[in-house]
Design goal:
CATH superfamily: Heme oxygenase-like
Helix content: over 70%
Low-confidence stretches: none
Distance between the termini: 46 Å
Radius of gyration: 17 Å
InterPro entries: Haem_Oase-like_multi-hlx, Thiaminase-2/PQQC, Thiaminase_II, Thiamine_Salvage_TenA
Structural class: mainly alpha
Shape: globular
Oligomer: single chain
Number of helices: 11
Keywords: Hydrolase, Thiamine biosynthesis
Function: Catalyzes an amino-pyrimidine hydrolysis reaction at the C5' of the pyrimidine moiety of thiamine compounds, a reaction that is part of a thiamine salvage pathway.
CATH architecture: Up-down Bundle
Mean pLDDT: 95
CATH topology: Heme Oxygenase, Chain A
Pathway: Cofactor biosynthesis; thiamine diphosphate biosynthesis
Strand content: under 5%
Bound molecules: 4-amino-5-hydroxymethyl-2-methylpyrimidine
Catalytic activity: thiamine + H2O = 5-(2-hydroxyethyl)-4-methylthiazole + 4-amino-5-hydroxymethyl-2-methylpyrimidine + H(+); 4-amino-5-aminomethyl-2-methylpyrimidine + H2O = 4-amino-5-hydroxymethyl-2-methylpyrimidine + NH4(+)
Number of domains: 1
C-alpha cells in the first residue's frame, strides 16, 4: 500500500521540496546497510537506544498536538497516535533490546547524542510554540520517510533477522494507514492556514527532513559530544 500524493496538494508540494534530502536518506550507508544486512550491529544498537529517547519525546509532541487540536475527534486521534508511539517503543525496547543485548548498565549510562537531542528539541519547540498544523508539519517526515523506506526495501532479505523485523515494521499496512491520516490532516489544516503559517509549516518540514538524514549519520558514526 503506497502513499501517493495528489498534485496540487500542500503535502505534495512539501514532498517535492524535500526530495533531494529524502533521496540522501534512501542512499545513506546506514539505511542500505540495514537493507543488505551489512550494517555492523553495534551501530544499530546505538541507533535503537537513541531512537528510544527520540520516541519518548515524539510521543510528547503528539500529545501536545492533542492538546492543541481544534475538536474532540482530532484530540482523540492525536492521543491515539501518541499511544501507538508508546506501543512501538515498548516493542522496540523489549524485542530489539533483548536481541541486541542492551543491558541495564547500557540504559543507566545512556546520554542522548547531539543530533537526537537537537532533532527532538526542534519538534518540542514547535509543539510548545506552534499550531497543530505546524506540529503535523514537523512530525510528518518522521512518519512518511520511514514508510517510504519500508516500501522501498520491502523486497530486501537481509541475512540479519533484526534488520528484517525493522524493515517489516515500517512496510506494513497498519503504518501506511497512520501516515495517510497525518498527510490528510496536514492538507486540511494547510487549507485554512495563513500564508505565514504555511511558510512556517514548510520550514519545520524541511528541517525535520534534514534531521532525519542526520539521525542516520549520527548512528552510523556513533556520534558523541565533542567534549
Ligand atoms: C528518528 C526516527 N524518525 C522516524 C521514526 C518513525 O516513527 C523513528 N522511529 N525514528
Amino acid at each position: 500500500m503506497t502513499v501517493a500524493t495528489e498534485t496540487g496538494t500542500f503535502s505534495g508540494y512539501l514532498r517535492e521540496k524535500a526530495d533531494a534530502i529524502w533521496q540522501a536518506s534512501f542512499q545513506h550507508p546506514f539505511v542500505t546497510g540495514v537493507a543488505d544486512g551489512t550494517l555492523p550491529l553495534d551501530r544499530f544498537k546505538f541507533y535503537v537506544m537513541q531512537d528510544a529517547f527520540y520516541l519518548s519525546r515524539f510521543a510528547q509532541v503528539q500529545a501536545l498536538g492533542a492538546a492543541k487540536a481544534p475538536d474532540l475527534y482530532t484530540s482523540g486521534r492525536m492521543a491515539f497516535h501518541a499511544q501507538t508511539t508508546y506501543n512501538a517503543e515498548l516493542a522496540l525496547h523489549e524485542g530489539f533490546a533483548a536481541d541486541l543485548g542492551i543491558t541495564d548498565e547500557d540504559k543507566a549510562q545512556f546520554q542522548p547524542a547531539p543530533t537526537a537531542y537537537a532533532y527532538t528539541t526542534h519538534m518540542l519547540s514547535v509543539a510548545y510554540t506552534g499550531t497543530l498544523g505546524e506540529i503535523i508539519a514537523a512530525i510528518l517526515p518522521c512518519y512518511w520517510l520511514y514508510l517510504e523506506i519500508g516500501e522501498r526495501f520491502k523486497g530486501a532479505k537481509p541475512a540479519e533477522p533484526i534488520y528484517q523485523k525493522w524493515i517489516d515494521a515500517y512496510g506494513g499496512d497498519w503504518f501506511a494507514e497512520l501516515v495517510r491520516e497525518q498527510i490528510a490532516r496536514l492538507d486540511s489544516l494547510a487549507a485554512y492556514a495563513t500564508e505565514e503559517e504555511r511558510r512556517k509549516m514548510e520550514q519545520h518540514f524541511l528541517i525535520s527532513s534534514q534531521y532525519e538524514y542526520s539521525f542516520w549519520e549520527m548512528a552510523y558514526r556513533k556520534e558523541t559530544w565533542p567534549v
